[in-house]
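Entry 14. Ran structure prediction on the chain below.
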Amino acid sequence: MHKQPIMQATRRAFLAAAGGAGAALIVRPAKATPAAMTAAIKQVVGEAQINSGKVKLDLPPLVENGNTVAMGVSVESPMTAKDYVKAIHVFTEKNPQPNVISAQLGPRAGKAEITTRVRLADSQQVVAICELSDGSFWSDKVDVIITLGACLEDNLI
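Output, structure tokens:
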């Protein structure tokens, strides 16, 4: 009995097969705008008022490389059964998508704090919004200058 070799699925093999079938692969960069960020925020908060304070967005104001930027968001909250942070959302105005992260929390989280690394495409404003258990929304924003941006899809063609 003759065994057939297993074909490895690679990006190069896929592109060669797609090109051989007469298909064209066009990559267009997705890019959020300040208006897209505003629309994404409105989708989360609806018509609710967004207050300043209680939220601390920790991002460096000047970043050499946007491929991996340390980011932290913390919220002043006792995190009790009656008074806690329900969610933390982060939005950007110039990344491919305006929604960077949404984290759901509850009173058992202990601390209203998240840390992660994000990619930033360009110098832009980053906004963090938290929703408290009483239905109120609070925010902080940081303007970040990026010297070498990430998310550069137009270089993939």
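The radius of gyration is 21 Å. Will compare against last week's run tomorrow.
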